[in-house]
Amino acid sequence: MDTKKKPNPDEVLNELLVKLFKNIMEIEEKYLITPDFKDISVNDMHIIEAIGLKEPKSMSAVAKLMSVTTGTLTKSMDGLSEKGYVIRERGKKDKRIVFVSLTGKGRRAFAHHEGFHRDMISKIKDGINEQEVAILIYALAKLNDYFNSIYKE
Question: At what angle do helices 9-32 and 104-125 cross, to 10 degrees?
Fold first, then answer.
């Protein structure tokens, strides 16, 4: 007689999610903070990602993308500016608006961070078919919807 108890799907999901969140944070930090980028944090990398490579963004637009106040973002932006990752410029039409863009060093950090995400997606998709990718996207979208719904409460 088989004495092994069938794993409870809820317990398995919970354990996987807890490990996944922990691993993502730890692995992303280990991968991103290399000798070239040892002077910034993972949060700084996410700010660099939010600024992006296109036209300059206003501080309020970046703060909104990061879900922080402009005041909170300003402190991080001070450090990124001092370290040569970003440039801040006042608006030409409205001097109250501050726009930020990436320097060459910031663009290299952006590319490094983007490479991490590209590798991660490639490894996740390796060995699974299109239908399984679609199911994974659906499941992750439901998880994202859940987090968005409790965040807005």
Answer: 150
Task: Summarize pLDDT for 31-44 with one digit per residue, the tens.
Answer: 888 899 999 999 99
Beta-sheet strands, E only, within 1-153: 57-58, 86-90, 98-102
Cβ atoms of 29 and 43 closer than 8 Å: no
- Which residues, 6 or more positions from 45, have their beta carbon under 8 angstroms from its beta carbon? 32, 37, 109, 112, 113
Per-residue pLDDT, averaged over 1-11, amounts to 78
Structure tokens at 93: 């039409």
User: Residue 49 half-sphere exposure, CB side, CA atoms within 13 Å?
Assistant: 15
**pTM across the whole model:** 0.81
